[in-house]
Amino acid sequence: MSYEIERKFLVVGDFHPFVRKSLSIKQGYLSSHPERSVRVRIQDKEAFLTIKGKGNDTGITRYEWEKKIDVTEADALLRLCEPGIIEKIRYIIPVGELAFEVDEFLGDNLGLLIAEIELPSEQTTFEHPEWLGAEVTGDVRFYNAYLATNPFCKWQ
Amino acid sequence: MSYEIERKFLVVGDFHPFVRKSLSIKQGYLSSHPERSVRVRIQDKEAFLTIKGKGNDTGITRYEWEKKIDVTEADALLRLCEPGIIEKIRYIIPVGELAFEVDEFLGDNLGLLIAEIELPSEQTTFEHPEWLGAEVTGDVRFYNAYLATNPFCKWQ
């Protein structure tokens, strides 16, 4: 049993010069319910099954359970998922002891960029680089589970 | 990737004299969707996460993925599940090389008894003991995922 403590931001500037590493992600949802999402993710040559509960009052902390699974099994499970598979490129950008993950969405979510930072506690402070935009932590529209069924291309 | 090949029956007679073993089961659903159910089960001192796809045309075969998980993790995941936790006693009754599993439901499904038999192929024949009633294979009302949200006590 563990908790994910994470803050989420829009991206408003060029972060590319600071990227340390990038990886490709393909993921789908067996359940996109915000209180019990079940995600299948293939990330480069690894795959994971991840279950998340609902966010707490601040929206920063969520219960998270994750297990590594076989990529071939993940492929089969992706075929069972709700319509709306998400594909994105994830860029890792270190800041001090921590790291931003900037997700550049493809397909129906093309044009959307979201930066996330995982924290050891809700109170942890961190550097806000110039390319970081407005905070969207806890805004369910920016949950990937929401984007799977309500892609960015259909937003007003 | 594997498939569950299973037939399901009502129970109309006394099966107790033939029981070889019994175990207690508590299970909930992170998703009760019949095309992608996600089940958390604690069975005596073991726990499993099981994902099932929809049944084929005959309703006998369903895609199934299962992983053993820690009981303490299963306990935490059960708290995330949809309302409607199922509790039942499972009785194992050998028939030749195969075995019936008779589930005696408790709580809101009290009074319901379902016998299941897992088969190596859809064509496999097996003995039908006297206590076995009508076949309900493929009838989604007898899916445990359905019973979780539509318990037997509320049936007309």
UniProtKB/TrEMBL annotation, chains A, B:
SUPFAM superfamilies named among the record's database cross-references: CYTH-like phosphatases
Alphabetical keyword list: Lyase
Pfam hit, one: CYTH
Active site: Y29 (proton acceptor)
Name under which the protein is recorded: Adenylate cyclase
EC number: 4.6.1.1
Top-level EC class as recorded in UniProt: lyase
PANTHER family: SLR0698 PROTEIN
Superkingdom, natural source: Bacteria
Domain spans labelled CYTH: 2-149
One function term, GO molecular function aspect: adenylate cyclase activity
Endpoints of the signal sequence: none
Magnesium in keyword set: no
Keyword Lyase attached: yes
Organism annotation: Microbacter margulisiae
